[in-house]
Write a structure and sequence with these properties.
The complex is a heterodimer of chains A (195) and B (257). Chain A has one domain: Rossmann fold (3-Layer(aba) Sandwich), CATH 3.40.50.880. Helix content of chain A is 24%, strand content 32%. In chain A, a hairpin with a 1-residue loop joins strand 11 and strand 12. The radius of gyration of chain A is 15 Å and the shape is globular. In chain A, the strands form 3 sheets. Chain A has a 7-stranded mixed sheet with strand order 2-1-3-4-13-12-11. A 4-stranded mixed sheet of chain A has the order 6-5-7-10. In chain A, strands 8-9 form a two-stranded antiparallel ribbon. With 195 residues, chain A is α/β, with parallel strands linked by helices. Chain A is built from 6 helices and 13 strands. Chain B is globular, with a radius of gyration of 17 Å. In chain B, helix 3 links the parallel strand 4 and strand 5. With 257 residues, chain B is of the alpha/beta class. Chain B has an 8-stranded parallel beta barrel with strand order 1-3-4-5-6-9-10-11, surrounded by 7 helices. Chain B has a single domain, classed as TIM Barrel (Alpha-Beta Barrel). In chain B, 37% of the residues lie in helices and 25% in strands. Classes of the chains: A alpha/beta (195), B alpha/beta (257). Chains A and B meet through helix 1, strand 8, strand 9 and helix 6 of A and helix 2 and helix 3 of B.
């Protein structure tokens, strides 16, 4: 099986690679369209700011490649947000795979932003959450979130309910960091690779 | 619900943990990777590795250690100690650290906080504040200290905490040098003031001696996370017991067993 981690100007993706190493999965870290298209599984990680990342993806054409992929694609964190239609983070037009807009956590809630730390997810409706205990804890670090929508397959609550995971056709996404989310995160990665 | 985090801190010299650790079930208690993995398995929510090596050789050993930790454990970890430049941070993040903690360098050059958060994102920049309540010309005040808490600056800790947030810090690691090592409890009032003012998470450190101290720092102290070293290393408190205790007191805690 060929797994590709999409290479772009994201922040550190080293821990994603180590997480795949731990479950014994081999992968290719590349931005080459031919390699990406021929992969069995594609991981689109994300650490960074939406507008800079989107303009980079546009400059290299990945903004067209990613939505046209046919194999299972898994976007995490900012990767998930970029798969949505629009992000309030510097008012960024995103790839529009999921027809939902990413919004900043309301400041008025009195809660700290970013939402940082372990929070529980529920309402599982995804093959990626198979075998996970109810209310599994996973690790989040983000200031923007996708509201609950028709593609929500796991939700979380911080100030208000939001989408912890999205799914549409061959596109899967998680707002949290599977790679550092303990055994729960590892299970989700394994489930994705098993699809 | 977002949980309160329990964070063991490991001091590392030349790639090995320094404080004598008496875990009988470890093959090598000085092995910082093995110890970290054990804490992760016990339910620690994050780890902090502090490099207390001063030499250049020690520094490259530490980066190698960071890489091995990242390969082994599946929870977030922060590294700190002697970080003073974008290059230092880049090397540690590329080795697999999730966050870096800066202290003296931020005091010397506060613009470094802005530069690092722009370059790498706020989420991975922790500013450590070592503070001590000392007499100044204005009476007793909380004053920022550097060099492991030995050297007083002229900076007042409470406004400094706000300043580091405004400059882009993603988290504050607040250590009270007054309570550190006493086992009499965290500095609740100061922690509460700083965490109550902050819109970023605050990790409280210094003074944990029993499980109730953690309860106090999460309630009265308003802390988002509690950090301790020797009480975990010497098994005066076991992490699973601590988490069970806090959970039973109705605090939001990530249970792993």
């Amino acid at each position: 099986m060929k797994t590709v981690i999409i290479k772009y100007n994201a922040g550190n993706v080293q821990s994603v690679m180590y997480a795949l190493d731990r479950i014994g999965a081999s992968y290719l870290y590349t931005d080459d369209e031919v390699e990406i298209r021929s992969a069995d599984k594609v991981i689109f990680p994300g650490v960074g700011e939406a507008s800079t990342t989107m303009s980079y993806l546009r400059s290299v054409g990945l903004d067209k490649v990613i939505p046209s992929l046919k194999q299972p694609v898994f976007g995490t964190c900012v990767g998930m947000q970029l798969m949505c239609r629009f992000s309030e983070e510097n008012n960024t037009e995103c790839m529009g795979i999921f027809d939902v807009d990413v919004k900043r956590f309301p400041a008025a809630s009195g809660l700290k932003v970013p939402h940082m730390g372990w929070n529980n997810i529920s309402g599982y409706q995804s093959p990626l959450t198979e075998g996970l205990p109810d209310n599994a804890y996973v690790y989040f670090v983000h200031s923007y979130a996708a509201p609950i929508c028709e593609y929500t397959v796991a939700s979380c609550d911080y100030a208000l309910p939001f989408s912890a995971m999205l799914h549409k056709d061959n596109f899967y996404a998680a707002q949290f960091h599977c790679e550092i989310s303990g055994n729960a995160g590892q299970q989700i990665l394994e489930n994705f690779l098993k699809l | 619900m977002l949980t309160k985090r329990i964070i063991p801190c490991l001091d590392v010299k030349d790639g090995r943990t320094v404080k004598g650790v008496n875990f009988v079930n470890l093959r090598d208690a000085g092995d910082a990777v093995e110890l970290g993995a054990m804490y992760a398995a016990q339910g620690a929510d994050e780890l902090v590795y502090l490099d207390i090596t001063a030499t250049v050789d020690g520094r490259s050993t530490f980066i190698d250690l960071v890489r091995r930790v990242a390969q082994t454990i599946n929870i977030p970890f922060t590294v700190g100690g002697g970080i003073s430049s974008i290059a230092d941070v880049s090397a540690l993040l590329h080795a697999g650290a999730d966050k870096v903690s800066i202290n003296s360098a931020a005091v010397r050059n506060p613009d470094l906080i802005n530069e690092l958060s722009l370059e790498f994102g706020s989420q991975c920049i922790v500013v450590a504040i070592d503070t001590r309540y000392i007499e100044t010309e204005n009476g007793f005040e909380h004053i920022v200290h550097t060099h492991g808490g030995r050297k007083a600056t002229e900076i007042r800790s409470i406004p400094w905490a706000k300043e580091v947030e405004e400059r882009g810090a993603g988290e504050i690691l607040l250590t009270s040098m007054d309570t550190d090592g006493t086992k009499n409890g965290f500095a609740l009032e100061l922690t509460s003031t700083i965490s109550g003012n902050a819109n970023i998470p605050v990790i409280a450190s210094g003074g944990a001696g029993n499980m109730e101290h953690f309860y106090d720092v999460f309630t009265a102290g308003k802390a988002d996370a509690g950090l301790a070293a020797s009480i975990f290393h010497f098994r005066e408190i076991d992490i699973p017991d601590l988490k069970e205790y806090l959970k039973n007191k109705d605090l939001p805690i990530r249970m792993t067993r």
